[in-house]
Input
Amino acid sequence: MLGYHTVANTKNRREISWVYIFYAVAIIILILHFTGWLKRNKLEWIVLVLAVATFPAVIFLK
Output
């Protein structure tokens, strides 16, 4: 029984870390968008990629 709980906790921690990584990247992209950095460097398409990636991330990383 001890081994099962250890594996379950490790898996749960990995899933949580992916959610945190996704949210951190999303916040950084939004900050760069609102400061105009993405537009100056012609990288506005990253905002669209973030919008498309949000739906699967919410479903699969939940």
About this structure: The chain has three helices and no strands. Residues 2-35 form the longest helix (34 residues).
